[in-house]
């Protein structure tokens, strides 16, 4: 059996797609092209109208190109099940939690069918059965995500993800530890803890409630048990994918500060807008001033900190003055990278109902200006680090990503997945 997993969207989707690949490999399937696949899994995204358009196009293409079953899962599938079902009889819409069981069932059925008609696997489909404990985890990726949390209890007025994903829930710490141990033992040098609302990680343990910083402490202890590399690099370092500013506890910041790079001194704190008026209308839980205070405190505790963010431009009712406040706050925060999203109207959200939508041309212009500022801020952050030595992860031959999340050339002869010492 051949399979293709098509991943769209965020880091959490990427981790989930990895686990679908693991389930398929464990069932004896091998990866193949869309055309050759007996089973295609499309992990969909609904974060913006553009992402959803791409998702639908991808599913249509999978139906056209492949001859087998097409499983559609993920946020867009939850929100628009009928749309995908209508794309063909071979399409099934499956909840995330059921994908692994479903792919195992289809794999078993196909294997049975193959046996019934004789040795039709002689084309090599089962010839190289991959090791299920490794496949899909980090094939072609040096940095590996581990999902520790899902869902969100917030209700930002522009967002459909909390609807698609449901309430916040956390992966048991023992499961996270087992996942990380497996990756570390396989030689992974950077693990990214991911979640839809990562900072809300909570687990009850015998010693009381366990938060994100407690989880990190347990993972660091696991890394400590590994042999120390001769070059002095961290055995395995951790990175946090994204954390809401209100969830950045003092304990977590202090832990990052103490670890000397074993937890990357890089935080992604979604800002979304620099105007307190717009933030309130977005139903975000902080004002612009509070956000800046979080940034100042974090920078004071961790002077080498690199900060990245997400900003939406052209939210309904956003005036030029509001936008200028966003630009000012971005400068004050000295972000090293900004993901700029022109506001995307998502059906069923309060913001989509508003009459004061911003003209598309205005949104595009604001996105252009903010991206230009982002490029300047990124260059300034990099210039400030000039001469600093950092461990960088080789992501592809010749290219590496530093702890502070700047791309650099990898030293000649370095291997993908290796941590190398570079001078910025
Ligand atoms: S924090 Fe807000 S934007 Fe993020 S998933 Fe939750 S509701 Fe959506």
Number of structurally distinct domains = 3
CATH architecture of the largest domain: Alpha-Beta Horseshoe
Ligand kinds: iron/sulfur cluster
Largest sheet: 5 strands, parallel
Shape estimate: globular
Structural class: alpha/beta
User: What's the CATH class label of the largest domain?
Assistant: Alpha Beta
Strand order of the largest sheet: 2-1-3-4-5
Oligomer: single chain
Termini Cα gap: 47 Å
Helical run tally:
14
- CATH H-tier superfamily of the largest domain: tm_1862 like domain
| DSSP summary, beta strand count | 19
Q: Spans of 5+ residues with little confidence (pLDDT < 50)?
A: 116-139
Short descriptors:
3 domains; pyruvate-formate lyase- activating enzyme; 424 residues; Rossmann fold; alpha/beta; four-stranded antiparallel beta sheet; 14 helices; binds iron/sulfur cluster
Brief digest:
The chain is an alpha/beta fold and 424 residues long. It has helices at residues 11-26, 49-65, 75-79, 81-85, 96-116, 161-165, 173-185, 212-224, 250-258, 276-281, 288-301, 320-333, 350-353, 360-384; strands at residues 2-7, 30-31, 39-44, 69-74, 91-93, 143-147, 149-150, 169-170, 190-194, 203-205, 208-210, 237-240, 266-268, 306-313, 337-342, 389-396, 399-402, 407-409, 419-423.
């Amino acid at each position: 059996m051949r399979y293709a997993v098509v991943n769209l969207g965020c880091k959490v989707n990427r981790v989930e797609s990895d686990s679908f690949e693991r389930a398929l490999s464990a069932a004896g399937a091998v990866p193949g092209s869309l055309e050759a696949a007996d089973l295609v899994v499309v992990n969909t995204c609904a974060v913006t109208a553009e992402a959803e358009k791409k998702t639908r196009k991808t599913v249509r293409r999978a139906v056209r190109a492949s001859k087998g079953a097409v499983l559609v899962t993920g946020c867009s599938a939850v929100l628009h099940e009928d749309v995908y079902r209508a794309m063909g009889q071979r399409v099934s819409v499956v909840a995330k939690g059921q994908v692994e069981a479903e792919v195992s069932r289809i794999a078993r059925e196909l294997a049975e069918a193959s046996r019934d008609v004789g040795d039709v696997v002689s084309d090599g489909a089962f010839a190289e059965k991959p090791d299920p404990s490794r496949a899909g985890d980090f094939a072609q990726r040096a940095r590996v995500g581990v999902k520790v949390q899902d869902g969100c209890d917030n209700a930002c007025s522009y967002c459909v993800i909390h609807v698609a994903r449901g309430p916040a829930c956390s992966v048991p710490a023992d499961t996270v530890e087992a996942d990380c141990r497996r990756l570390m033992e396989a030689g992974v040098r950077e693990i990214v803890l991911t979640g839809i609302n990562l900072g809300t990680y909570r687990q009850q343990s015998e010693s009381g409630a366990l938060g994100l910083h407690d989880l990190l402490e347990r993972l660091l202890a696991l890394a400590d048990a590994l042999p120390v590399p001769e070059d002095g690099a961290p055995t395995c370092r951790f990175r946090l994918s994204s954390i809401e500013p209100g969830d950045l506890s003092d304990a977590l910041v202090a832990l990052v500060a103490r670890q000397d790079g074993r937890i990357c001194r890089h935080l992604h704190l979604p800002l979304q807008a620099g105007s307190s008026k717009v933030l309130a209308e977005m139903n975000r839980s902080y004002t612009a001033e509070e956000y800046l205070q979080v940034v100042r405190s974090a920078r004071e505790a961790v002077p080498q900190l690199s900060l990245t963010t997400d900003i939406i431009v052209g939210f309904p009712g956003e005036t030029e003055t509001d936008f200028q406040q966003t630009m000012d706050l971005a400068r004050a925060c000295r972000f090293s990278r900004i993901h700029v999203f022109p506001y995307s109207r998502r059906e069923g959200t309060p913001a989509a109902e508003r009459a004061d939508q911003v003209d598309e041309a205005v949104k595009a212009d604001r996105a252009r200006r903010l991206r230009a500022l982002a490029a300047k801020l990124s260059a300034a952050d990099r210039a400030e680090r000039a001469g600093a030595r950092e461990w960088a992860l080789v992501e592809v031959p010749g290219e590496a990503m530093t702890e502070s999340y700047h791309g650099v050339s990898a030293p000649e002869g370095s291997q993908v997945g290796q941590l190398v010492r570079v001078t910025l």
